[in-house]
Amino acid sequence: MTVLDGIILSIIQSATEFIPISSSGHLIIAGRFLKIGEVPILFDLVLHLGTLSATVLVYYRIIGAVFRDLALFIGGGPERRAAAVSRGNVRLFAYIVISTAVTGVVGLVFHDILASFFAERSNAVPLLIVCTGAILMGTWFVRPGGREIMELGIQFPVIIGLAQGVAMLPGVSRSGTTIAAALFMGTSRPFAGLYSFILSIPSVLAATAGQIALEGGRPHGAIEPALYLLAYCTTLAAGYGALKLLLGFLKRGKLYAFSFYCIAGGTVWYILMNRNVI
Fold first, then answer.
1. Domain range for residue 231?
2. Which terminus of the chain faces fewer neighbouring Cβ atoms within 10 Å, N or C?
3. What confidence score (pLDDT) does residue 65 get?
4. Phi and psi at residue 220, to the nearest 5°
């Protein structure tokens, strides 16, 4: 893998991790187009670290508030515990744990099927990008909701966890699917984005740890150390910009705008891949 390949993969990962067009699907397509072959596992880890850092940079105040209220709930007196619960951050933390657990169960149960789409079924990936477009298009018809964390029952984190599990298929956008599912359940647009991206932190960490455990023997390949730093910085910067861009579209109720690319682009990629052009 060349330096140019690394930069291209970094930009694709960071942009498509947040913009709802599927990072995994586009990395598969880019890998075939560039004929990169197997990407070293450490490089994958650096890319994910960059996008995680971008998420934390955008939501660090909320993340800090969640952990402060969690500490009060665990070690504070009755009044402080009640205040912590009333702000909703304790419930937010609990729901994130539930959604992550549900996604983990989906991943374990359907691991072999999911893995097949990264190998022998990779030609189907563009069709899954088209499916992402259909999901995003559905948000066009959703009226703005106003439900926040304290108005959402236990079914909310379960359904979001299942949606994120489906999004483990390469070509199905994690951010697009989880945000759309939240909107379909009547949440406010800002909360839908907040929940989706904070949920990405433990989910990506868990997925990365699982990948390392399952593929730890995969060769790292010959990559210059400086490329890792360049990949991290590129992913962080591009990811931060992409996340801010998506939140702007979401605030204006225009998440569906990305569906046009998914449907048209997925169709074109499908034709090219199945005619062995790429």
1. 3-274
2. C
3. 96
4. -80, -20
